[in-house]
Target: Endoglucanase
Amino acid sequence: MDTSRKAYYVSQNNPGSEVSSEIAAALAASSIVFSKIDGLYANVLLARAKQVFDFANNYRGSYNDSIGAAVCPFYCDFNGYMDELIWGATWLYKASNDQNYWNFVKSNIQSIESSVLFRNTNGFKVLANGGSFAEFGWDSKHAGINVLVSQGVMNNPSNENPFVPNANNLICSLLPNSPTKSVTYSKGGLLFKVGSSNLQHATSLSFLLIVYARYMQANNKVVQCGNVVAKPSDLINLAKSQVDYILGNNPLGMSYMVGYGQKYPQKIHHRGSTLPSIDVNSNRMKCRDGDKYFELSTPNINVLTGAIVGGPADDDSFQDSRYNISQSEPTTYINAPFVGVLAYFNSNNM
Model:
């Protein structure tokens, strides 16, 4: 491929607090993992996480403004960069136990609680369903912050607010029998939220359900949703139902993970999966030369094993077509949380 693959960077004059804070969070989280097996490397990761967070915080600004058309309209930051800054500070506090990061979280958390959240759907702004406490994905970190912080404050009344109440509200917004449920479920049992590529919600929210269930178990807690009492096992079972659906236990008997099971999407919206390899076609391919492969009615030439696509419609139907991007396109933000979900069920032999 020799068409333009331009890369962008943020700087003091052209800041991007969203992406910088996300990097700081990832580095801090990684330092926790490596602290038990390679202390020197863990220290390097943590030190760099602090540097990147300081950069994100000291030179505040959105990458919407700095690199514009490179991210908009499809990956604009619609809810501001403050949630990413708090997300980064939360992970740094967890990794370092530095009180300054906790103070940052506490002093700024209210600033994102009243924000109106919009989600990007095929280039258009759509008001998100469920409020900020119920949002977690590539753009919004609200629910993740509340769940992550709750681990350390679940039995500390002075610090529980707003984290534990908001995390509880998240759970009540998801449980099928909750009186305050704000999501819908298909007849086959798949969770749905407003927007395209719905499996991003099913995978990321399943991940949070499992994490919060483990915190509840450790602290002997339940969640009260009106007259419904949610136990940790209820959260685990809901997450498992989503995993089972995605992997084939659904009305179509289709796995939405490519290459898994006997029946899975064959015509996914993915360039590398659609085009022949250089061993098959060594001729130079210009930008639009792949159109003829995209337009074929036959299955993709290359099987993108392990990729999870956007998933079915809310009536459990699925159009296996490269043209149906919201259903047939695999994304990293669908696969990434699913890895954690599968790791939990694998380690618990479920």
Notes: The first strand starts at residue 118 and ends at 121. The longest helix spans residues 199-219. Strands lie at 118-121, 124-127, 184-185, 191-192, 223-225, 228-230.
